Amino acid sequence: MNYADRLHAAVERCGNAALIGIDPHLAMLPEEFAVARDSSATRRDRAQAMGDFCVELLDLAAGRVPIVKPQSAFFEIFGADGALQWERVVAHAHTKDLLVIGDVKRGDIASTAGAVYFNM
Fold it and tell me: Taking the CB of residue 78, how many other CB atoms lie within 10 A of it?
């Protein structure tokens, strides 16, 4: 099945063509994921907390929208640990029958232009 057919089926299944952009700004994560913004925590723990937030978001979105679009810059600030969480989030979205569009652009808006790798 080609992408257009998969998209059509997903829109039909959900009854809408909405897309959720996932831009996990650390400062805006709910308090239960606060370790993501704690500079004294390990890079792995920070990335894990951000990934946990995204996975919970996907669980809520599943069946309601056909497509999600995670912004990779927010994952990449945690280096390899963030890349692993990116893969986790994409894989989890697929288990929920969500189509994924990788938002991998840089420099188009302040948040992605400012997302830089944390040297931890």
Answer: 26
Query: Are the C-beta atoms of residues 20 and 65 closer than 8 Å to each other?
Result: yes
Q: What would the pLDDT profile of 2-59 be if each residue is shown by its tens digit?
A: 999 999 999 999 999 999 999 999 999 999 999 999 999 999 999 999 999 999 999 9
Specify the pTM: 0.86
How far is residue 115's CA from residue 112's CA, in Å, rounded to a whole number? 5
Give the 3-state secondary structure percentages of the chain, helix then strand then coil, rounded to 5.
55, 10, 30
For the question of residue 105 being annotated catalytic, the response is: yes
Of the residues 6, 13, 105, 106, only one is catalytic, namely 105
d(CA 120, CA 43): 6
Which amino acid, one-letter code, is at 88? R
